[in-house]
Amino acid sequence: MKSTYWKALVPVVVAVVIALIPPPAGLEVYAWRYFAVFIGVVLGLILEPLPAAAIGFIGAVAMALLGLPFSPADRAAEGFSLPSEAIKWVLSGFGNTTVWLIFAAFMLALGYQKTGLGRRLGLLLVEKLGRRTLGLGYAVALADLILAPFTPSNTARSGGTIFPIIRNIPSLYGSEPGETSRKIGSYIMWTALATTTVTSSMFITALAPNLLAVEIVKRTVDIDIAWMQWFLGFIPVGALLFLLVPSLTYILYPPEIKTSNEVPAWARQELKDMGPFSRNELIMALLALLALVLWIVGGNFIHGTMVALAVICLMLITHVIEWDDMLANKPAWNVLVWFATLVTLAGGLSKVGFVDWFSNSAAGMLTGMAPMTVMIILVVLFFVVHYLFASVTAHVTAVLPVFLAAGAAVPGINMMVFTLLLCFSLGIMGIITPYGTGPSPVYFGSGYISRKDFWVMGSIFGLIFLVLFLVIEIPYLLAIY
C-alpha cells in the first residue's frame, strides 16, 4: 500500500511545486499552471498509482474544475459560461474520430480472436515454414504482419495472439526457460518481439499511440496524415526491417537448433483439431479485407473511422461478434476513455499557448544550426528519450507536442518530413527496453530472454533500427515532400 501512496503523491506534489514557481518570461500564469498539472498527469501515467485511463480522466476533470484551459480573454468573452464550457472541454475528446477509430480497431481484433482466424493464420504459416528455425522466424513475423493492420494493440496482437501459439514450440525441442532457452526459445521470442515493433510502425492502425500521435500532430502543427500516406511513407525502411529481423536475430542471437520436423507436425495437428474454416472465420476474413481496401482507396468517399464502424456493424449483423462481446471487451472501453482524455489534455497545451511559447523559445536556442542538423538531432533525442517511458502512449502525450513545437520553430525545416519521422519512430523505439512497449513484459516474463540479453539486444537492435531509419527515410521523404 505504501508504494501506491507515494506513486499517487509524487505527481500531485510535482504539479503543485511547478505551479508555485513563477512562470517563464512570455508565458501566462494560467498556461504555466496548465502545464504544471499536465506534467503531474504524465507522471501519473508513468507511475500508475491508478489505471492509466483513470489518471487521464482525473487529470481532464481537474483541469476543467480549475478552469485552466481558459484564458482571461475567454472568460471575458460575451456569453462565456465556465460551467458549460468546462464540461464541453472535458468531453470534447469523446467526439474525436481518431479515438473512435482506435476503439473500432479493438473490436476488429476481437473478431480475429473470437473466430479463431488469427490463431489459424499463425498455425498455417508455422506449418508451411517451420521446418527450419529461420523459416519458423519468418512464419512468426508473417503472422504478426497479417494481423497488424487491424490490431491497434500490439499487446493483443503479439502478446495475446502470437505468444500463446509460439509458447508451445520451444518445449518440442527441449528448450525451456533457463539453461536450455538458447536452443530455440530465445530466438523465437526475440524475433516475435522485434517484428511487432516494426509492424507497429508500418501501419497507422497497428499501434494505438500512432493514432493518438496523428491527432496531436493535427492539433499542434495542423498537418493531416492519412492511412495510405503513413503506409507508403514508412514502407521503404519498414519492408527492409521486416525482412531483416528474423535473419538478423539468427545471426546476432543464434539458436542452437537449426532444423526440426516436430514444429510443422505440431502445427498440422493443431489445425486438424481446429477443423475446417468456420463460417465466422470466412466472414471475418472478408470483412477485414473490405476494411483494408477501403482504408487504402476509399478516402475520397468514406472516412477511415466510418469504415471501421461500418465493419463492426456488419460483424454484429452476421453474428461474428455479439453485442455482449463488445460490452465485455474491457480493453476497448478502457482505451476509449484513456485516449479521449489524453487527446483533450494534449490539445490543451496548444489551446493555452504553451506550444507557441515553447516553439518561440526553442527558436532562439536553435538559431544558427542547419535545419537538417536540427531535424536529425531532435528525431534521435525523441527516440532515445523513450528509455524513460514504460508506455508509448505516455511518451506521445508528454513529448510529441514539445518536439513538434521545437521543430516548427526552426526556419527552413521541412515540417511534413520531420513530423512523419517522429510518428514513424513510435513502434520501433519499443525494442530498446524490457518495458518499452506492451508485449515487452510478456516476452521478458517468458523466461527465454535473460535481463542482460534483453538490454544488450535492445540496444543493438535499437541502434540498427534507428540508423537504417534515418539513412533510408530522410532522403526518401525529402524526395516526396
Entry summary:
The protein is mostly helical. Helix content is 73%, strand content 0%.
Q: Which of globular, elongated, flat, extended, rod-shaped describes the shape?
A: globular
The SS-based structural class is mainly alpha
First CA to last CA: what distance? Answer: 53 Å
Number of strands: 0
Question: Rg from C-alpha positions?
Answer: 23 Å
- What is the total domain count? 2
Give the number of helices: 23
> What are the secondary-structure elements, in order, as H or E?
HHHHHHHHHHHHHHHHHHHHHHH
What is the percentage of strand-forming residues? under 5%
Biggest β-sheet description = none
The level of helicity is over 70%
Task: Please characterize this protein's 3D structure.
By secondary structure, the chain is an all-alpha fold. It has 2 domains: 1-95, no CATH class; 98-320 and 352-481, no CATH class. 73% of the residues lie in helices and 0% in strands. The protein contains 23 helices and no strands. It has helices spanning 2-20, 29-47, 52-66, 72-76, 82-91, 97-115, 117-129, 133-147, 154-166, 185-202, 208-221, 227-252, 262-274, 279-297, 304-317, 323-328, 330-351, 354-365, 371-384, 392-408, 415-428, 440-445, 451-480. α2 packs antiparallel against α17 (330-351) and α14 packs antiparallel against α15. The longest helix has 30 residues, at 451-480. It is globular. The protein starts with a helix and ends with a helix. The mean pLDDT is 87.
Keywords:
481 residues; mainly alpha; 2 domains; globular
